[in-house]
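Reader question, answered in our methods column.
A reader sent in the components of a multi-part assembly and asked whether the whole thing could be modeled at once rather than chain by chain. We filled in our standard form and ran it. Here is what they sent:
COMPLEX SIZE: two components
ENTRIES:
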Amino acid sequence: MDIVRDILDKQLCDREEIFMGRVDGLVLEVSKDGPPRVDHFELGFAVLARRIHPRVERWLQAIRKRWSVRKNARQIVPWSAVLEITPQHIKLDLAALETPAFDWERWLRKHVIRKIPGSGAE
Amino acid sequence: MKKALQLALGILTAIGGFFDVGNIATCSQAGAAFRFQLIWSLLLATIVVIFLVEMSGRFAAVTQKALPDTIREHFGFTFWLVPFLILTVIHLLVLGAEIGGICFALHLVTGLPLQVWALPVAVLVWLFLWRATFKTIENSTSLLGLITLAFVVAAAMHHPPTHEVLAGALPTMPSHDPENYWFIAVSIIGAVIAPYLFYFYSSGAVEDQWDVSYVPVNRAVAVMGMGFGSLVSIGAIVVAGMVLAPRGIRVTDYHQAALMLTQAFPFWGYVLFAVSMGIACLGAAIEVALSMSYSFAQTFGWNWGEDLEPAEDARFCLVYTVSILLGSLFMLFGFDPLKLTILTMAINAAVLPVVAIPMLLLMNDRTLLREHANGVISNVVTVGIVLLTLVLAVVSIPLMIVGGS
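And here is the structure of the entire assembly that came back:
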């Protein structure tokens, strides 16, 4: 497997196959006595911003301080959570709704969408 | 039988994506200024769009993935960022132009100014997306869209000189206003090959759960759907050539375009034009707003789908809601809808390589498409398309400056 070609930017989904973001960043662990191995994935706008330019990440962090519903800019998903890798997605042993990946989704559902008639929310 | 019904997807895309505000604007301008002489430009664009739509549908059927999704995954976020941002701007401009088209249609019927209609139209477009499923949108717009056949009927009723219409299928040098001639040629291409179309079409195929068995259906959809759209557009050029050109009427405002059907249908012409324009633009506005949501959701890996309840994909709904609101601002602040349309079509033509090149690279990737990757014929056409889009990218904006009316 080629980690940049086959893992980075790939669609992530939870146990129920609900989409929960993409592999925005990959973190490797380098040890003295073995080859480097993938430790965890990183998710979040801050991770993407850093891929563009460190300065963009700093801007984003400054905005976040004033206005965000997330506690952490980065969500970390350990490699151990990976259930399977298919051509379509990477399936994780998580429930999307309970992860920080759904912070914005939850906030929008609660504060905006539910208040509009016909949203399908109970 | 189910697959026969799938042709509806093609027809929706044809009416929404093919015959929309851009075609009404560019075809009426072409016919009014150069009669049938620019039909070749529409035919060229139709051939290109058939190939590209066929490829994006085949891609989705084989991989079960839409294009924005795959481009980010395959080429990486930093590569995708630039096309994504360009597309976001294009989506908003096109949405503004389509909303402008609906507002103009309502203005024609009611006499009320465009500004008054901007927000009600935005609410109407939004309501469709908020409540309707993908199937409902697909079927209702494709059925209602058949009214645009009025242009074809009107064209036949005018008994245009057949040899002149056929002669227009081959490119010739104009006898007057060459800058304007080439500019309209380019904007017709920009109107037909709308960049969002391929992202929308491939996402729609994923929504409809196409698999490999749909490859032949997809081919028929591409040819027939786009052919239908092209026929209506040729009808519009011919009608404009028969009605507006002999009277020396140039289309500098949609009011002049609205005269097109009044010769063939003296009493109903205005209303028929307004209804055709309103429906074609409504279908397109819904599509463009949806396409914006698809591209955001796929870029960031959110849950997406028009068939989910809004409470299941809140971010997806937020994107089309905000887009529609932003798109309606153009009319609210009194932009001229025709000028906005023409500007947008020129930009469409200019950014085509950004859309075409990644797509064509993907279509040759056998790890993704296996035996369904592009063959020799598709690739020869493909190279031609890339060259054409590169030429358009260079000439469209300068032409708009010298030849735009």
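What stands out: Chain A touches chain B at residues 4, 8-12, 18-22, 24, 48, 51-52, 87-88, 96, 104-105, 108-109, 112-114, 116, 118-121 (CB under 8 Å). Helices of chain A lie at 3-7, 45-52, 54-66, 103-111.
Send us your own complexes using the same form.
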